[in-house]
Design a protein that fits this description.
The complex is a heterodimer of chains A (478) and B (328). Chain A has 478 residues and is an all-alpha fold. Chain A is 70% helix and 0% strand. Chain A is globular and about 70 Å long. In chain B, helix 4 packs parallel to helix 10. The radius of gyration of chain B is 22 Å and the shape is globular. Chain B has a 5-stranded parallel beta sheet. Chain B has one domain: SGNH hydrolase (Rossmann fold, 3-Layer(aba) Sandwich), CATH 3.40.50. Classes of the chains: A mainly alpha (478), B alpha/beta (328).
Chain lengths: 478, 328
């Protein structure tokens, strides 16, 4: 079930009513059943995967907690991780690895035909698998106690607002909230609705509108002009941000309706001044997951510079692989890791007080780097990525024609250009103010007619500006 | 909770009123009335002498507009399957009588196509919510009914708003893509015959083969499924009610019809021969007919006649069959 579907518009009020009607002791059951129904709406058979991963991590965590012997503790936790990652491997990475081995063998003149599994990638498998692994590791470290109520634990793994595209919640944050008695909070619920409205604007209006141009160019980039390709590099940066952060906002807003606070997943990432800062603001739940369960156990930054660089690279290569079973994703992760290694070196050798670069310049420069790296994320192959990044200057000798022709090539007329500009401007203003203030709370303090005009205006805008076809959330595939 | 629910209720009411208002404005636009060519069903005569069903080939081949001596109706729509030919046939059955003629245009894939069985359904299905009642739409579901029947503004949001605003100052009737295609070619009257050469011919050949390939792919193993059964039911119902049935395959360009495998075409013609023999009905196949190959400009692409082509074809069709057509 998609957040931007009419089914969800019917599903949510029903679950909301049931949740608050049912006594606290049975609310976990409402959460669990509604979450399973939510997932089954996509593919009923694959619910078994969630149930299996839930079962394995539930039993594994209890065994880890009971075990006194450290060696055996490690064995249990290792078992849970291996089983969970094996499932992820079969569904997500098997074909990629098989293809890679086949290619390498063929290069080495050993003719072979690889094995290909025709399996549908389960929606959100990387999210709930990582959440379950995180829980087991938390129990192993003694950060949390193992949950003995299987129903409540299953509700934690499958909590529908964040089931298929995160945020990847931490045990200490979400599980207690699902167990403790929640009381309806008017402020929290209305904030949730407003956050959802903003999330829908980002997803349905901005991301889906830009998706039309992005899909067009990346589908057949050779038939478009240099400017069209350059424009689409930036369009994709905005599309993926609005698509994913829109989903996160809707997820967080939905959770608030149930009195549950999910972690913030995005904090105006395109206003970062470095790639390192970008990762502190982008997909926070994943980057902190990798920080806590991969980077720090590897030694983090309390090691030599060289070892630290290796740790960073390993973490980001794995992060790239988490996003997709393709070498382009791995390269994307590796480039992000590489950029951070370089930044650390530059910072280390930098002399205080000299050449102070203005904030705006740093933000723009960083945005250019991040946008260029997104090309590897979106392109189907390295060849396509290279083509996108290299051949944007074609026709630049006549700049006016280059720009106007590019817009024409993309099918963007004057009205559409103004619309795109307005929506990007709205987004930029919202994110810039968010650096210092909570925009939703600020609007909430306005006089009633003004704030209601904003709320209704936003909903009407979502309705009016939404493209006819809505695209699926990009992060559903991860 | 009470405060929250009352505020949500007020907001929902305001938004609902806005939505209903927009919907009212939208369903009265010329754009909506002729969306997906459904405008042709709005002013149908009470008594129909001849009706042609079929997909876009049929929609582009028959043009009854110049004939006043009989009431001809073109009920063919782009990608319309025989299942929906049957639905329309049943829905408008009361307007046909013993002297009526039903023309079923059968393209090479018509007998074998699969009907979509899982949502989301595209416009090829949802368009029928504008015309047909629930029982006539096989894939009917409440979600689509809300979006395309009760609140069509939901099914076409952006275009809906654009057209509500633009039609305030525009008096012209909205023309669908198919209509524009059908009107094209007027300027060809009296023009010298044209032939394709060079890259144009190359491009047409490639496109024709691509389209033929896609037709074959959509036909699977050419098994007799629901489309075939729908055709048989139409023929049998016509027979029971003494309505004349004629099967036709509309003309197309050689670059298209030569793109089909021989085996595929043999099977198709074998099926058609069996049906015609069993029910004793005529079949007119215009594939490769020299008269419609003289000028490629009678076509809007590799396999659809344009306005001029359709007028010429209809005229020739009537002339060819004047002895057997009951209404003519």
């Amino acid at each position: 079930m998609l957040f931007n579907s009419l089914e969800y518009a019917v599903f949510l009020p029903i679950v909301f009513a049931l949740y608050w009607i049912v006594p606290h002791k049975r609310r976990w059951l409402v959460v669990l059943l509604s979450s399973y129904y939510f997932y089954m709406n996509w593919n009923a058979k694959y619910l078994l995967l969630i149930v299996f991963i839930t079962g394995v991590s539930y039993v594994g965590a209890i065994l880890v907690e009971r075990e006194k012997n450290t060696g055996r503790k490690k064995l249990w936790v290792g078992g849970v991780i291996v089983i969970s990652l094996s499932i992820l491997f079969v569904f997500k990475y098997f074909n990629f690895v098989s293809e890679l081995i086949t290619t390498l063998l063929n290069i080495a003149s050993i003719p072979t035909s690889g094995i290909v599994l025709s399996l549908l990638l389960p929606v959100g498998i990387s999210f709930y698998t990582f959440q379950a692994i995180g829980y087991t590791l938390d129990v192993y470290r003694g950060d949390v106690l193992a949950e003995h109520h299987i129903g409540k634990y299953a509700a934690f793994v499958a909590f529908f607002p964040q089931l298929v595209a995160g945020p990847i919640e931490r045990t200490h944050n979400l599980l207690p909230q699902l167990k403790e008695e929640r009381f309806f909070d008017y402020g929290q619920a209305t904030y949730g609705l407003k956050l959802m409205a903003w999330g829908y604007f980002k997803k349905i209006v901005v991301a889906d509108t830009l998706a039309v141009y992005v899909d067009k160019i990346y589908g057949d980039m050779h038939f478009f002009s240099g400017f069209a390709r350059l424009a689409v590099i930036f369009f994709f940066s905005i599309q993926i941000y609005c698509d994913f952060s829109g989903y996160s906002d809707i997820a967080r807003g939905t959770a608030k309706l149930f009195g549950v606070e999910l972690m913030e997943n995005f904090k105006s990432p395109y206003f970062s001044t470095s790639v390192r800062e970008f990762w502190r603001r982008w997909h926070i739940s994943l980057s902190t997951w990798f920080r806590d369960y991969v980077y720090i156990p590897l030694g983090g930054n309390r090691v030599s510079q060289l070892r630290n660089a290796v740790n960073l690279m390993i973490t980001f290569l794995l992060s790239g692989l988490w996003h997709g079973a393709s070498l382009t994703f791995v390269a994307w992760g590796g480039l992000h890791g590489g950029c951070q290694v370089i930044e650390k070196q530059v910072e280390f050798h930098k002399k205080e007080g000299k050449h102070k670069i203005p904030y705006a310049v740093k933000v723009v420069f960083n945005f250019l780097i991040i946008s260029a790296l997104w090309v590897f994320f979106r392109a189907q192959s390295f060849k396509d990525a290279a083509y996108m990044l290299v051949y944007w200057y074609q026709g630049l000798n006549n700049p006016v024609r280059w720009i106007m022709g590019g817009f024409g090539n993309l099918g963007i007329g004057a009205v559409t250009a103004v619309k795109l500009l307005l929506m990007i401007l709205m987004l930029a203003v919202f994110d810039y103010i968010s650096l210092k203030k909570d925009v939703i709370n600020c609007i909430g303090k306005w006089k009633l007619p003004c704030r209601w005009a904003v709320y209704i205006g936003l909903i009407v805008l979502v309705f009016l500006w939404a493209p006819a076809e809505s695209a699926e959330f990009i992060y559903f595939d991860f | 909770m009470k405060k929250f629910l009352s505020k949500v209720l007020v907001l929902t009411m305001i938004l609902s009123l806005l939505l209903i208002g927009m919907n009212l404005a939208y369903v009265n636009t010329k754009y909506y009335k002729n969306l997906n060519d459904m405008g042709k069903f709005s002013d149908l005569p009470e008594h129909i002498d001849v009706v042609n069903f079929g997909a876009s080939h049929s929609a582009c081949a028959f043009n009854w507009s110049g004939y006043t001596q009989f009431a001809g109706v073109n009920m063919a729509l782009g990608s319309q399957t025989l299942v929906y030919d049957e639905a329309l046939f049943h829905y408008y059955f009361d307007r046909l009588d013993e002297n009526s003629t039903v023309i079923l245009e059968i393209m090479f894939k018509s007998l074998y196509e699969e009907e979509p069985n899982e949502p989301p359904y595209g416009t090829n299905i949802t368009r029928y919510y504008q015309v047909l009642k629930k029982d006539f739409i096989r894939q009917w579901n409440l979600f689509d009914a809300i979006c395309y029947q009760y609140l069509p503004v939901l099914g076409n949001r952006q275009a809906a708003v654009t057209h509500i605003i633009s039609e305030l100052s525009d008096e012209k009737a909205f023309q669908s893509e198919l209509e524009r295609q059908q009107e094209a070619g007027q300027e060809l009257l009296g023009e010298p015959t044209q032939v394709l050469d060079g890259w144009e011919e190359e491009a047409m050949n490639t496109e024709g083969k691509r389209r033929a390939g896609s037709f074959m792919a959509q036909s699977g193993n050419q098994e007799h499924g629901e489309q075939y059964e729908a055709l048989i039911r139409i023929i049998e119902k016509c027979e029971e009610n003494n309505i004349q049935v004629i099967l036709v395959t509309a003309p197309t360009l050689p670059c298209f019809y030569t793109g089909f495998d021989t085996e595929f075409m043999d099977r198709f013609y074998q099926d058609m021969a069996e049906i015609c023999q069993k029910y004793d009905i005529p079949y007119f196949d215009y594939t490769g007919d020299e008269r419609f190959l003289a000028d490629y400009r009678w076509y809007s692409d590799t396999d659809h006649l344009n306005g001029y082509g359709s007028r010429y074809f209809t005229q020739e069709f009537l002339r060819d069959n004047q002895d057997i057509l009951r209404f003519y």
